[in-house]
Amino acid sequence: MVNNKEFAYDSERNIQTDFARNMTYEEYLKLDDILSAQHRLSDHHDEMLFIVIHQVSELWMKLILHEIHSAIDCIRQDDFSSAFKRLARVSKIQNQIISAWDVLSTLTPAEYIEFRDALGQASGFQSYQYRLIEFALGYKTPHILKIYQKNSELYAVLKEAFGAPGLYDVAIQALARAGFPISSEIVERDFSIPYNEDESVKNAWMKVYQNVDKYWELYELAEKFVDIEDWFQQWRFRHMKTVERIIGFKSGTGGSSGVSYLKKVLDHRFFPELWEIRTEL
Ligand code: HEM
Ligand SMILES: N[C@@H](CC(=O)c1ccccc1NC=O)C(=O)O
Which residues bind substrate (predicted)? Predict the structure, then answer.
């Protein structure tokens, strides 16, 4: 932030350093922007909790994306130790957003219902950062893009992320570079097509897990992925249970069946082979 070009225009006069020296806490953190963005649509006391929980979750999602994208770059360069640091951080953040459900669970059905109508058709279903995380983890469901069709700028960002290789794709490429016989259809696949389980990928991970000492980096990478998927599923589960606790089986404002939809999403796996091999090891 401090290196922002706006402030780095006169290096001779050291304007940037001067600015940094005089800068206050709230200027650096843009607290005016962040703390003036909680606009309740009702005068119900608990709507503040609802807004803050979402905003906090979105901020953490921003950091998750930052870390995952960096981890993807690191894996592409076979820089595994840096990737481990990024991915370990992702899991810790996931832990934070899961804990947020404890706070939201203090909201009762009677309290929520008082401002639910004010939310109209808005829903977490539309969270584009959540979708960018799903894409970066390789979960590409084509109908999801349609949600954003009306916003051309956002649509372009999401479409690009949709077609880009995800975390699992670059790990599979690393397996191929390490000499594992990965089917060429997988290595050169169209990344905008949902990933389907593959036998050559499964065999490669099996070998990695059976020869941990030899393939320690790939093994550690796989275990970081399992951590992330595990936490992701726990987030989905806590969301589903919190929703059931607050709205029961009412349908969702986003147009879905509600809890039944959220339960169905729990069946999805990001890294299927890493779960499958556990039965066979
Ligand atoms: C009172 C609290 C909440 C209720 C009742 C609720 C309800 C729902 C429902 C019913 C859906 C399904 C889509 C729909 O038809 O609307 C959904 C989706 C979603 N919600 Fe929430 N939610 C709550 C809090 C949160 C919070 C705090 C977050 C954090 C950002 C969140 C993020 C999401 C996301 C990302 C989806 C899409 C899930 C997917 O498609 O797999 N929700 N929510
Ligand atoms: N889908 C929720 C509404 C909801 O939770 C929501 C509404 C606006 C902004 C974020 C939301 N959070 C998660 O879905 C419901 O059906 O009550």
Answer: 50-54, 112, 116, 253
pTM equals 0.94
Query: What is the DSSP code (8-state) at residue 147?
Result: T
- 131 Cα to the center of ligand 2, angstroms: 15
Q: Are 274 and 222 in contact (CB under 8 A)?
A: yes
Measure the CA–CA gap between 276 and 281, rounded to whole angstroms: 9
Number of domains present in the structure of the chain: 1
Q: What is the CA radius of gyration of the chain?
A: 22
CA–CA distance, 78 with 177 (Å, rounded to integer)? 9
All residues at 6 or more sequence positions from 238 whose CB lies less than 8 Å from its CB, including other chains: 98, 101
Ligand nearest 261 Cα, by number?
1
Q: Is residue 22 part of a domain?
A: no
pLDDT per residue over 98-131, tens digit each?
999 999 999 999 999 999 999 999 999 999 999 9
Protein residues with CB under 6 Å of any ligand 1 atom: 53-54, 57, 104, 107, 112, 123-125, 127, 130, 239, 243, 246-247, 252-256, 258, 261-262, 265
Structural domain that includes position 100:
46-246+256-280
In a domain, 37, yes or no: no
> The CATH number of the domain where 121 resides is what?
1.20.58.480
Cα(120) to ligand 2 centroid in Å equals 9
DSSP-assigned letter for residue 256? S
Under DSSP, the state recorded for 19 is H
Please name the residue whose Cα sits nearest to atom 4 of ligand 2: 123
Q: Whose CA is nearest to atom 3 of ligand 2?
A: 123
Note the pLDDT tens digit of each residue in 197-247.
999 999 999 999 999 999 999 999 999 999 999 999 999 999 999 999 999
Please check whether residue 12 lies inside any domain of the structure.
no
- Residue 17 falls inside a structural domain: no
